[in-house]
Amino acid sequence: QPGQCAVSTSNRNFEGRQGPGRRTLLASPATAAATAVAGEVADPRRIA
Questions:
Q1: Cα(37)–Cα(13) distance, integer angstroms
Q2: 35 domain-assigned
Q3: pTM for the full model?
């Protein structure tokens, strides 16, 4: 849905890359993994 946000470890970021009206946050692999576990953008230092 428009307005949703995706976390990605890719090295490319431009409007609509993950779909129309969606935003992409570029993150390290550790941050992406912590985010997947937590279900929201998370600091990997708090997961360990």
A1: 23
A2: yes
A3: 0.73
